[in-house]
Design a protein that fits this description.
Blueprint (H helix, E strand, L loop, with lengths): L3 H24 L9 H21 L13 H23 L5 H12 L1 H6 L9 H20 L2 H4 L3 H8 L9 H7 L4 H15 L3 H5 L7 H29 L8 H14 L10
Helix pairs in contact: 1-2, 1-12, 2-3, 2-12, 3-4, 3-9, 3-10, 3-12, 4-6, 9-10, 12-13
Length: about 270
Amino acid sequence: MVTEHERELAALVDLLATVGEECATLGKAHAGVRGKALGFAFKLTGHAASALTLLRDKSALVPDGPRFLDGPSVFLLARAGWEAFLLFHWIFVAPGDDEQERQLRYRRWSIESVRRRQHFDILLDGQEKQLAEEQRLIEEVLAEIQANPALLKRSRREQKELLREGGRWRPSFQDMAKGAGIAKVFAEDHYSYLCDHAHTGWFSVEGLKGSLSAEDERMLRQTIAISLGIATANVVAGLQSLFPALQALTDLDARRVTHWVTQGQGKHEPLAPA
């Protein structure tokens, strides 16, 4: 049976998709980095929708085989969605009115993956050309970052770390969460538990012994829906701050977003389970 928490999450994900589409339309009329935030929002939407699907329909080896709730996989989706929210907030929302800082954070993030790919073995035709093109892109972005006044606001050590490959260019996800106003129970405790499942920790293995009890399954479903609900509500609120021209939310949607944002801050008890 679908729980109240899952219904709330589904409503928030639907709202995020609607807000995201409106932001995409607004973004076409405004140059700048803010429109890049939508990729993070759509990534979170996909993870949350997939988590809800697994919670509702469960998993099976074959289409008509026995179904089971694959908790570790759902936790993986929750962690990926949580991190999408945190990077979204740190890159796009946390800088506030400082567009140069927002640009700096986005551009540094944008070269992290292609920098790592420079060290991949060349196995395919055209890969060498692709790597050469990406190296030129990296150099262009680094030059852009070095010309950004926001870089000069940092100490020399911080500048060096931000620019160098493998350097510490962003805070930890726990610190990002704290910066977003998230309470310790979610910023540290719950995130650590999600990471345990992603890294094949003791909890993720021991929890697989036997089928889940009804109470364990209820708690798992509630935990996933709450964490993704907090993430989704915060991204909706973030998009509202990035795109002031957005249509106002309905009273119900506004209350829902506020409830889940403040819950993430530790200011409200969770909704009573169905």
